[in-house]
Amino acid sequence: MPCATQKMLINFLLFFSTFFNDPVNCFVPGKIIDYVISESSTNAGQDIGRISETITHEQILERGLGKSITKFFYDQTDGPNRINLTKITNHYQDIRNIYADYYGKTVCTPKVSDIITVLLGPNVALVDLDPLTKDLPYAHFDAEKFNESNTRVMNFTNFIYFYLDLKDYEKALELSGQIMHTIHDFYSHSNWVEMGNVDRINRAIGTQDLYSMPIADEKDAETCLSNCELIETPCSTFTQSVIDFLKLLELTSALFECPIRYYKCKSNLAEFDKLVSGYYTGQKLSDGTPVPKPSNLLKCSHGGLIDVDSILLEPTGGINKDSGYYLFSPRADLHLVAAHLAINHTEYFFDQIRQKIGDQEFDKFLDLTYSSIELSRIPDNVTFLKMPNLR
Ligand SMILES: *[C@@H]1O[C@H](CO)[C@@H](O)[C@H](O)[C@H]1NC(C)=O
Ligand SMILES: *[C@@H]1O[C@H](CO)[C@@H](O)[C@H](O)[C@H]1NC(C)=O
Ligand SMILES: *[C@@H]1O[C@H](CO)[C@@H](O)[C@H](O)[C@H]1NC(C)=O
Ligand SMILES: *[C@@H]1O[C@H](CO)[C@@H](O)[C@H](O)[C@H]1NC(C)=O
Ligand SMILES: *[C@@H]1O[C@H](CO)[C@@H](O)[C@H](O)[C@H]1NC(C)=O
């Protein structure tokens, strides 16, 4: 008997239906576009500069949390005999495999997977959709607002512990999802990777230590160079369908003209000793104060089709590593590096919560273990059915 697939499809559709209710400003629906590319017979991927797969915020969250959960089970009764830690980044990426190894039976939807689908996933995505946060630089480590973004992480972390103390796990999970988004963005929106930190997460995030890191400000007149390669691609049926899709999302800040123009950047940073991030068209503070890319300084742009300033205002191009397509990410070549750092930081984030509240509370927070009664209700002969991963 295979695990039911219906539920995943329904969740998938529910998740995407949220896009059509709200105008979106900065979300790249990477999996949908990858799916369209895979279904398309032309060299569609090439047209939009596809260089790698795209790992979304939800996947980053699930993989990082999965690593933390793997270590949790390893540390439980008989863990070392059941869990093989060397499989932490590969086999256990599918959380069901942790359960299969630890309990010796197939659990189709572990309780924690429901938590990921219903609470953590939607909240990590929400930050790009919610009118209160989608254009707020503090929620995305944009516009060189490192201090303010860090203050946001510290405030959220305090509230997470506050709600954990009250045993309001749902609220703690919502806030965890939301703040993970901001932490992930540090790696894809800043120059951390270009500074040489290809396999080192920034443990100063969420602590006072970040305030003493060197950060570029208005005195640093040139953080990026205008040396990116301009790519022009004709509007094929495929690119037209991508554009139509983005128009549906009401991405008004995008420059939809044929031929499509986007930048491919390689060594466009001018600052390696200080933290730098990109400016993104249309950003504003909570009180409505705009945060434009300065026109009198040579500051980095976020970049990509959806960031008009990055195409029109020097230095052109940009530094974001949000996706594996140059169409959206001028540093698509660094996307996987940034995504893996974000996965490891997610792991670190949940490890710290576990360390602070202890295994028993961590178990309740994420509903991890099964009692023998719960286990006896799970049939013994279930097998996995491989599903296309669309999220
Ligand atoms: C653990 O997994 C690794 C890699 O999959 C494998 O080579 C090794 O034999 C496994 N160890 C045990 C004790 O099963
Ligand atoms: C701190 O976080 C809480 C909970 O999300 C939020 O209500 C509050 O506005 C935040 N305060 C600041 C100064 O960001
Ligand atoms: C992430 O952590 C793993 C160990 O779990 C390590 O092998 C890997 O190099 C780290 N990746 C990055 C990008 O830091
Ligand atoms: C960040 O905060 C620290 C400590 O409050 C301060 O010294 C520094 O100037 C701030 N940096 C920026 C760019 O605002
Ligand atoms: C597998 O499970 C199904 C449904 O629970 C049951 O009808 C069937 O007899 C089981 N098959 C085996 C081989 O145990």
UniProtKB/TrEMBL annotation:
Keywords: Signal
Domain (VWA7 N-terminal) ranges: 97-236, 265-362
Keyword Transcription regulation: no
Signal peptide: 1-26
Keyword set includes 4Fe-4S: no
Official protein name in the record: von Willebrand factor A domain-containing 7
Record lineage: Eukaryota, Metazoa, Spiralia, Gnathifera, Rotifera
